[in-house]
């Protein structure tokens, strides 16, 4: 049984103390909202009333315009309050009240306008009530400043003296300012106390709600625990009992009376002697005593059913204290069922282990198939698993030659491989050939029968094999060969054994098919690469034939470039690309007109500009051919120079690809040492001197040094 998750009771929110700040803010927001609405309404009424007494022209115009300007501002404050922007509304209302109080005071003095104290007091009261301490300070400061400024103006004669009942003007101002300061201080304290009290009240309320929530949760958990305990005990796959010190059963689950064949009423009056076999009474009494003394104990005893049957049980008990009383809490497990379960578990465990071993064998064969495409290695793994998992003494695989329609030796274990290698069996010939042709499994028993069925294997007469199985290897509907098994004793080949043999044979067939496909693919790729290379060589010969002056040039520079690249550490794979690039170094000249390429005289500047475009033509010709992409550096960059004065891109130093730097040295050397109609060939020494003179200018110094060393070597040296 699964416990249900317990949440908060309905109406009691989880985490009530955590929203205290938001609740205080909500209460404050509502109070300020309504207070501002009332205050804005009062200010509008007062402004209208104040405009009515103005009769003379100047005062009327000033008061009317001032009140008229205040009304839209108050409207904006009302809108801000309705939108929840209470700080904006509070600031506007405060400013209007302060202006309404300060302007008359500064015009005629405080004594002549005692009503202005109300305008100063209202924003102070409002700020104090809502807890806006900064606003409160500003209001008090503006009010006091206005009073003292008006007093100073009266003393200076700038304002007419106000009647103050004989007291000096400044004394009246001090009294008024002091009163405002005291009111501001009191309201500041009052606002602080108000908000603290509100927060404390809400905190207390939240705590009460939290405590109530926790109590309800605890009650629900207790009820749930009781339900769970009862359900667990009732559905326990064993007998549960609670035994008192007096030897009476006080509680049990439904399995106890069922096992005994008693009713609950009978069991309530039963003793230990009534429920256990007489031969176990003494052991049961000692068991109970050990539990109450040591706290727990385990023993075995037989329950006595009403029908007189004795059923063995395992008793496990511990001491339990409830409400000051000690009890024995015991569990009795039917060991007869346990023995049956143990036997079943052992059987299942053995079966599972066998299946796991078979899965492991198949996994190893899969790894052999994916990890190595060498058919011999894969077949060795297959035969190892076949012999180990099928419990046979020897095994072999014969592979089908589709061209000759014969079965030939593939691999073997436990058999003389030398004698098997020369044996070839045609499809349909003998037991093996017929099994392969008919795609059916054949099982032979007895040494004589096996020797007669396999006449091409005379060594079997003395091998002592008593069982022989041959099964076809078929993958994707195609026959791949046969698998043969040999055993020197009786073969336990039940249905499960044959099913597993079929699985292993299928895996072996897949392995043979995969390896065959890979070999065919490799052969096709090799033939394709050879065809590509022959095509490239044909292009190179065609270029040499077009330019009679350079006949044989492509072959010579290719061989020398590959040799130099090998000395500089190029891998075998990269040497293939170097060779192709060298053969195709002048492929771009196919785009140069014969009138320029074969011109016997000196080329003009315009003709040289066209001739120098042949690296670009090479890129246009070769870049669409994916397998020639690694060979492009030589056709594209072999006219670049180390000092950056080459073409087509003006690359310098190591910006030039290394294959192109290697080829540039070889190309110039071959040109210098070859006959031309317009000059004789230079000697090798003279050509090398020229090459060395251009080191660091035209050529890479490292490549030049290695080239000179290569020509000086009497025999080929291994690459460094």
Shape: flat
Helical run tally: 25
pLDDT < 50 runs, ≥5 residues = 1-18, 54-60
What's the overall average pLDDT, rounded?
76
- Give the radius of gyration: 55 Å
Structural class: alpha+beta
The level of helicity is 55-70%
Give the termini distance in whole angstroms: 76 Å
The biggest beta sheet reads: 6 strands, antiparallel
Strand content: 5-15%
User: Could you give the order of strands across the largest sheet?
Assistant: 8-7-6-11-10-9
Tally of discrete structural domains: 4
Query: How many β-strands, per DSSP?
Result: 11
Provide a descriptive summary of the structure in words.
This protein has about 725 residues and is an alpha+beta fold. It has four domains: about 15-205, no CATH class; about 235-340, Beta-Lactamase, CATH 3.30.450.20; about 370-515, GAF domain (Beta-Lactamase), CATH 3.30.450.40; about 545-710, Hypothetical protein af1432 (Orthogonal Bundle), CATH 1.10.3210. The chain has 25 helices and eleven strands. It is flat. The protein starts with 19 loop residues before the first helix and ends in an 8-residue tail after the last helix. Mean pLDDT is about 75; it is low at about 1-20 and about 55-60.
């Amino acid at each position: 049984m699964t416990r249900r998750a317990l949440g908060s009771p309905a109406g009691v929110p989880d985490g009530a103390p955590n929203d205290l700040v938001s609740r205080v803010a909500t209460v404050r927001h509502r109070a300020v909202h309504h207070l501002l609405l009332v205050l804005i309404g009062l200010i509008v009424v007062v402004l209208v009333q104040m405009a009515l007494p103005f009769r003379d022209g100047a005062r009327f115009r000033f008061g009317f315009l001032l009140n008229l300007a205040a009304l839209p501002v108050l409207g904006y404050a009302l809108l801000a309050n309705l939108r929840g922007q209470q700080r904006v509304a509070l600031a506007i209302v405060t400013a209007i009240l302060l202006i309404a109080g300060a302007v008359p005071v500064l015009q005629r003095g405080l004594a002549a306008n005692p009503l202005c104290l109300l305008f100063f007091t209202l924003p102070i009261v409002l700020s104090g009530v809502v807890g806006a301490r900064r606003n409160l300070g500003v209001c008090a400061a503006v009010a006091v400043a206005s009073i003292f400024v008006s007093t100073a103006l009266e003393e200076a004669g700038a304002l007419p003296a106000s009647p103050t009942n004989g007291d000096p003007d400044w004394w009246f101002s001090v009294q008024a300012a002091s009163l405002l300061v005291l009111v501001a201080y009191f309201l500041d304290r009052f606002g602080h106390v108000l908000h603290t009290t509100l927060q404390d009240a809400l905190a207390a309320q939240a705590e009460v709600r939290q405590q109530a929530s926790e109590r309800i949760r605890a009650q629900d958990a207790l009820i749930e625990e009781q339900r769970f305990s009862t359900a667990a005990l009732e559905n326990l796959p064993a007998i549960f009992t609670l035994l008192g010190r007096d030897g009476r059963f006080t509680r049990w689950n439904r399995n106890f009376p069922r096992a005994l064949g008693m009713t609950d009423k009978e069991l309530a009056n039963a003793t230990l002697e009534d429920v256990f076999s007489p031969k176990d009474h003494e052991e049961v009494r000692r068991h109970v005593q050990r539990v109450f003394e040591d706290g727990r104990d385990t023993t075995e005893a037989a329950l006595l059913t009403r029908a007189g049957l004795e059923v063995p049980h395992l008793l496990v008990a511990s001491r339990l204290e409830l409400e000051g009383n000690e009890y024995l809490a015991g569990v009795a497990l039917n060991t007869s069922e346990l023995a049956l379960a143990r036997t079943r578990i052992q059987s299942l465990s053995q079966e599972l282990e066998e299946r796991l071993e078979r899965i492991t064998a198949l996994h190893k064969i899969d790894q052999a198939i994916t990890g190595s495409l060498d058919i011999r290695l894969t077949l060795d793994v297959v035969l190892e698993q076949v012999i180990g998992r099928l419990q046979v003494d020897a095994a072999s695989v014969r592979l089908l030659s589709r061209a000759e329609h014969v079965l030939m030796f593939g691999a073997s274990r436990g058999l003389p491989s030398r004698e098997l290698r020369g044996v070839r069996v045609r499809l349909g010939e003998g037991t093996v050939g017929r099994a392969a042709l008919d795609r059916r499994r054949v099982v032979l028993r007895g040494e004589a029968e096996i020797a007669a069925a396999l006449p091409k294997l005379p060594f079997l007469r003395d091998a002592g094999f008593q069982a022989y199985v041959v099964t076809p290897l078929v993958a994707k509907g195609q026959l791949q060969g046969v698998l043969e098994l040999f055993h020197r004793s009786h073969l336990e080949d039940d249905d499960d054994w044959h099913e597993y043999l079929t699985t292993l044979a299928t895996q072996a067939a897949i392995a043979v098919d995969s390896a065959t496909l890979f070999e065919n693919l490799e052969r096709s790729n090799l033939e394709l690469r050879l065809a590509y290379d022959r095509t490239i060589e044909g292009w190179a010969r065609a270029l040499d034939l077009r330019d009679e002056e350079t006949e044989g040039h492509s072959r010579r520079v290719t061989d020398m470039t590959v040799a130099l690249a090998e000395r500089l550490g190029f891998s075998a794979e990269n040497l293939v690309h170097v060779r192709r690039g060298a053969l195709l170094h002048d492929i771009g000249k196919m785009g140069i007109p014969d009138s320029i390429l074969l011109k016997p005289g000196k080329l003009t500047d315009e003709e040289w500009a066209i001739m120098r475009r042949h690296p670009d033509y090479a890129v246009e010709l070769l870049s669409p051919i994916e397998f020639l992409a690694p060979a492009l550096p030589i056709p594209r960059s072999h006219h670049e120079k180390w000092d950056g004065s080459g073409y087509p891109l003006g690359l310098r130093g190591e910006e030039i690809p290394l294959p192109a730097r290697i080829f540039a040295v070889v190309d110039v050397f071959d040109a210098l040492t070859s006959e031309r109609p317009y000059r004789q060939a230079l000697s090798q020494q003279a050509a090398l001197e020229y090459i060395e003179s251009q080191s660091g200018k035209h050529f890479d110094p490292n490549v030049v040094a290695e080239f000179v060393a290569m020509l000086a070597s009497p025999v080929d040296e291994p690459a460094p």
